[in-house]
Write a structure and sequence with these properties.
The chain has 9 helices and 7 strands; from the N terminus they run ααβββααβααβαβααβ. The chain is an alpha/beta fold and 335 residues long. It folds into 2 domains: 83 residues; 202 residues, Rossmann fold (3-Layer(aba) Sandwich). Helix 2 runs parallel beside helix 9 and helix 6 runs parallel beside helix 7. The longest helix is centred in the first third of the chain and has 91 residues.
């Protein structure tokens, strides 16, 4: 009898063993992962926090550096602005020096230019002088010294304190002032101010000071170092003298001592003084006299426009206000 062949089982024991081992390995891996997962998570959290703390510290450092840099930029910009200002000043100083250098030319060139300017000034002033001097009449000579009436009981001195006066003719001005005072042995009151209305005795502004020998010495002593600002125009000082003193008493004389006039409107300047000093009865509140010093001519040998304008203006002002204008001789030939 023929033996039957055994049938082969596809799900043999070896295959099942392999499958079981694989599942076992997977389960083992899952167990191992579950055991170490909390520790790994803690490590990751710690590392993240440390990194975050580091980044926050870096951010704080960067912010500090930014503030420091901003402060340095602000300081640098301020320093740059200061340097720019300094550069501008140096440029202006250089321009001034270059201008001064340009002015240092030969005597012949300077004299030629001065003569040319004088001719132009004469041409410009001729019409103005003719119009303003059309009604000029000489003052009455009774009771006069050097053409100046000496009938005043109250005297105000208005002095040009510009550099041309204080630097070049101040001793001569003080001498002339002393000579004028000698003409008045005794007056009831005096005052001294400059052409801007600044008083020699600030504490006594607006009031008369008794005329005494001690006061006269004090005036001359203070004048030696008195240098208030001046704009080289007699108008402001004369109007202030009329306002404060000319309208308060009778027989007031105002003396203006100066050398030049920087303004160009001679008619307007004279008219302002005339209106300020006009009395309601048609006369004047005070007499206005003037002494002119040829300072520019003494040091250049040529007549300047400013000196010529001063002479014309003060002659008109004195004539319109019952006064006298005295032009001093140059001391050029006596040096």
């Amino acid at each position: 009898m023929r033996r039957r062949r055994r049938e082969t089982d596809t799900l043999s024991l070896s295959f099942l063993d392999a499958i079981s081992c694989g599942f076992g390995a997977i389960i083992l891996l899952l167990v191992i992962v579950k055991i170490y997962e909390p520790q790994l998570r803690a490590d990751v959290v710690d590392d993240t926090e440390a990194r975050l703390a580091y980044l926050e510290q870096r951010l704080a450092d960067i912010q500090d550096d930014t503030r420091t840099t901003s402060e340095r930029v602000s300081e640098t910009e301020a320093e740059l602005a200061r340097e720019r200002d300094r550069l501008d000043r140096l440029r202006r100083e250089l321009a001034r020096i270059e201008s001064a250098t340009d002015d240092t030319r030969t005597d012949a060139q300077v004299m030629a230019e001065l003569e040319s300017r004088l001719q132009r000034a004469k041409q410009q002033l001729t019409e103005e002088m003719q119009r303003l001097l059309a009604d000029f009449r000489p003052a009455h000579m009774d009771q006069q010294v050097g053409g100046i009436p000496i009938d005043a009981e109250w005297v105000v001195f208005v002095i040009d304190t510009s550099p041309s006066m204080t630097n070049y003719t101040w001793p001569r001005m003080m001498q002339i002032m002393e000579e004028i005072l000698d003409v008045y042995p005794q007056v009831k009151g005096m005052q001294v101010m400059n052409d801007m209305g600044t008083h020699l005795f600030r504490g006594r502004q607006g009031e008369w000071i008794d005329d005494t020998p001690a006061f006269r010495r004090s005036v001359l002593q203070r004048l030696q170092t008195w240098r208030p600002f001046s704009n080289s125009s007699p108008v402001e000082g004369l109007m202030e003298a009329v306002r404060l003193y000319g309208r308060n008493n009778d027989n007031v004389s105002i003396y203006f001592l100066g050398d030049e006039m920087h303004g160009h409107d001679l008619h307007g300047a004279a008219e302002r003084v005339r209106v300020a000093n006009r009395h309601p009865d048609g006369g004047t509140w005070a007499r206005i006299h003037s002494v002119g010093f040829p300072v520019i001519f003494d040091y250049t040998g040529s007549v300047q426009e400013t000196g010529l304008r001063f002479a014309v203006l003060m002659r008109i002002i004195c004539e319109q206000n019952n006064g006298t204008f005295v032009a001093l001789h140059s001391g050029r030939n006596r040096r």
